[in-house]
C-alpha cells in the first residue's frame, strides 16, 4: 500500500494555496513543504518547511522535490502554463502523486473543457497523462470543486452584494455545486489519504448545491434594509461576445471570465454534480444556514 507522507505545495501563498497548506498542516498527517520562487514576497507559517526553487527550471524543481511523495500545484493563472516543468520534475524526483492546479470547473465535461479559458489546464492534463503513460510511476488526481463558495461570495463573483445590484445570470435558476476553500483543503487531504481510490481520476466534491436566485433570497433576508435591484444578464450573450473577442485575438481576463459565467450559471454545463466523492474524502457539506453566515460576514464588510 502506498502511503503519502511528504507533501510539497507550489503556489502555497495564493488564495487557494494558503488554505490548502493550512489544512495539510492542521491535519497533522503530513510533512509539509512549500516551494518559494526567487521573486516571491510570500511568508509562511513557522511549521512549514520552505524550499526555494526556480519554477522555470526542471533541474531546480527536481532538487526541491527530492524525497516528496506528492506535489500539490495551486498555482494561479500566471503559473498554469508552466506546470509541465513541475510534472517533469515530479517524475524525475520519483514523486508518486501529482495534483495539478484544477480546483474548479468539471473539465471532464467536453462542453466546459472546450472553453478557451481552460486551454492551459487541458494542455497540462494532456501532458501529464502522456508523461505518465510513457514512464509509469507518477499518478494524478484532478480535484473538481465548482466555484469557491466563501471566496466567490466575498469577491462578489457568485453574487455581488456591494451595491445591491447583483448581476443575475439566466434568471438565477441554474443550480450549481460549490465548495468552500476549507473543504477544498479537506478534499486534498482526502485524495492524499486514499491513494488507490483517487488514483488517475477526477474526484468531485461540494459543500452545497445552490442557485443565484437562492443566494439572493438569503442575502435579502440578511440585509432587508438594503435596496436590492438585481440586473438580468444572459450567459449565451456573454459567451457570444467572448467568442467574438477571442476570434479577434483578445484573450483578456474579462473576456475569459465570461466563459466561467456561462459554465457556472448557464443551463446544460453539468453545473451540479450527478455524484460526488464527499464521503470518501471526508467532506461533510454546508447548509443554507452556513451560507447565511457567510453572507452576513460579507454584508458586514468581512474579507
Ligand atoms: N473554483 C473557483 O472558484 C476558483 C477561484 C479562483 C481560483 N481557482 C483556481 O485555483 C487555482 C489557484 O488559483 P488562485 O486564485 O489561488 O491563485 P493566486 O491567488 O493567483 O495564487 C497564485 C500562486 O501561484 C504562485 N505562482 C504564480 N505564478 C507562478 C509561476 N509562474 N510558477 C509557480 N508559481 C506561481 C504564486 O506564488 P508567488 O508567491 O511566488 O507569487 C501564488 O502562490 C487555479 O487553478 C485557479 O484556476 C478556482
What is the element string, with H for helices and E for strands? EHEEHEHHEHHEHEEHEEHEHHHH
Largest sheet: 7 strands, parallel
Report the sheet-strand fraction: 15-25%
The ligands bound in this entry are: NADP nicotinamide-adenine-dinucleotide phosphate
Task: Tell me what the CATH architecture of the largest domain is.
Answer: 3-Layer(aba) Sandwich
What is the CATH C-level name of the largest domain?
Answer: Alpha Beta
Query: Considering the protein shown, what is the CATH homologous superfamily of the largest domain?
Result: NAD(P)-binding Rossmann-like Domain
Helix/strand/pairing category: alpha/beta
* First-residue to last-residue Cα separation: 42 Å
Quaternary status: single chain
What is the overall pLDDT average? Answer: 97
Rg estimate, integer Å: 20 Å
Helix content: 40-55%
And the CATH topology of the largest domain? Answer: Rossmann fold
Q: How many structural domains does the protein architecture include? A: 2
**Overall 3D form:** globular
Q: Give the strand tally.
A: 11
* Order of strands in the sheet with most strands: 3-2-1-4-5-6-9
Count of DSSP H/I helices: 13
Which runs of at least 5 residues are low in confidence (pLDDT < 50)? none
Amino acid at each position: 500500500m502506498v502511503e503519502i507522507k511528504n507533501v510539497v505545495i507550489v503556489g502555497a501563498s495564493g488564495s487557494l494555496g494558503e488554505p490548502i497548506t493550512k489544512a495539510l498542516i492542521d491535519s497533522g498527517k503530513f510533512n509539509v513543504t512549500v516551494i518559494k520562487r526567487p521573486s516571491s514576497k510570500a511568508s509562511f507559517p513557522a511549521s512549514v518547511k520552505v524550499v526555494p526553487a526556480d519554477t522555470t527550471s526542471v533541474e531546480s524543481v527536481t532538487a526541491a522535490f527530492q524525497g516528496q511523495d506528492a506535489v500539490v500545484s495551486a498555482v494561479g493563472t500566471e503559473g498554469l502554463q508552466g506546470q509541465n516543468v513541475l510534472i517533469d520534475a515530479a517524475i524525475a524526483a520519483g514523486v508518486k502523486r501529482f495534483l495539478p492546479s484544477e480546483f474548479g470547473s468539471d473539465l471532464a465535461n467536453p462542453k466546459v473543457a472546450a472553453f478557451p479559458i481552460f486551454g492551459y489546464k487541458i494542455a497540462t492534463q494532456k501532458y501529464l497523462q502522456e508523461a505518465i503513460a510513457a514512464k509509469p510511476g507518477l499518478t494524478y488526481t484532478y480535484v473538481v470543486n465548482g466555484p469557491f463558495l466563501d471566496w466567490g461570495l466575498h469577491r462578489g463573483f457568485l453574487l455581488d452584494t456591494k451595491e445591491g445590484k447583483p448581476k443575475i445570470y439566466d434568471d438565477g435558476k441554474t443550480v450549481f455545486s460549490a465548495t468552500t476553500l476549507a473543504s477544498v483543503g479537506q478534499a486534498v487531504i482526502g485524495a492524499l489519504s486514499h491513494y488507490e481510490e483517487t488514483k488517475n481520476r477526477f474526484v468531485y466534491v461540494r459543500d452545497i448545491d445552490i442557485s443565484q436566485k437562492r443566494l439572493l433570497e438569503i442575502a435579502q433576508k440578511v440585509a432587508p434594509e438594503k435596496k436590492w435591484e438585481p440586473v438580468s444578464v444572459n450567459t449565451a450573450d456573454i459567451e457570444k461576445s467572448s467568442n467574438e473577442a477571442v476570434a479577434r485575438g483578445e484573450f483578456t481576463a474579462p473576456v475569459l471570465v465570461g466563459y466561467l459565467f456561462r459554465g457556472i450559471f448557464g443551463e446544460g454545463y453539468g453545473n451540479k454534480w450527478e455524484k460526488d466523492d464527499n464521503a470518501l474524502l471526508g467532506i461533510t457539506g454546508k447548509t443554507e444556514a452556513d451560507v447565511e453566515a457567510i453572507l452576513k460576514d460579507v454584508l458586514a464588510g468581512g474579507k
